[in-house]
Amino acid sequence: MARTDVQLMLDVKAGDEASFELLLHRYRTPLVNFLYRMVRNREQAEDLAQEVFLRVYRAREDYVPSAKFTTWLFRIATNLALNSVRDTRYQKLEVSIDAPITTDAEDGDERTLDVPEKHPNIEQHLVEDSRRKMIRHAIDKLPEKQRAAVLLHKYQELDYAEIAKILSCSESALKSLLFRAYEALRVELAPLVAQQVKNQG
Amino acid sequence: MSCERMESRILGYVDGRLKESERLEVEKHLSTCAPCRVRAEEFRAVSGLLDELPVIEPSPEFDTRVRALVAPEPVKQSWWAWLHVSPRVAFAASFLLLAAVWIGVYRQPQQPLPWNNPQVADEQMMEDLPVLEDHDVISNFEPLKDLPAPVQQADEDQNTQQSM
User: Fold this and answer.
1) Is pTM beyond 0.80 here?
2) How high is the ipTM of this complex?
3) Is B73 domain-assigned?
4) Which CATH number fits domain A1-102: 3.30.200.20, 1.10.1740.10, 3.40.50.10170, 1.25.40.390?
């Protein structure tokens, strides 16, 4: 039977390096994806994910399984991501005085994974690409905390109590945060939403 | 249920995270409130759109970089950590400790104090009786009573008579 995250972390605490490898293998993809959707830069997301694992390793001796491992892990990741987003925004503000940013360089990160050969119909490929771009932009436009809440709720499938702990807020505040985020998304993505509702119906 | 209360439940309803009783309550409201029904449909559509974003894989060098980051970290193990990784040593140490305690407590010769146990006290007295008898014989030894007074005492008496 597979060991739980907490068991693995306790083994890391006892000096078992192989358990750390298992945690790394288990959480590298979810962490990189979460951080990528938070900071919108693949290289930066990987750097931050590596920093998360380093912090987990450093804290191994003081680790006490008082909460779920994922709560602790994504709390570290969320704090790093929020700080990074705020720093980047500050830097962009400084740069924009001389050179306003007009291009979206990071959009290429996901596109490179979609090899055009997979889509014999190039028109279909462009439509899908355009949809994804709209969705990414809609998520990007959310305030950082709302964005983190949506990503943790939608992609990590964490429960409300866990996400509330990660974001240091009450469960009712989290529900309100998510409601506002989905309201903003449905307005921002109105044409796609209408199409989706039509397809669902 | 009011539309305001729906705010905290509508997403849970869309995601299927509500309890059965809450779900029934929400469905009851939706059957009578068109704006909330539209909102629920559109939230479900948003959720579907979010599913369209592809999952990215970390670069092949990711694990190597993490290992390189943690490698220089000092290995600081607590005093008890080696027991955790070596249960046999822990068992042996515990066994030795218990054996030492057992020998110390249960294998000591039992020497009850005589004044706590009347029977033992009597036995002790019987053992000591010859000593008491010897003492009694010496203290009442008749021939010793006939001995002359100590010499020093006699000299002192003579001195007092002369001075008179």
Assistant:
1) no
2) 0.84
3) no
4) 1.10.1740.10
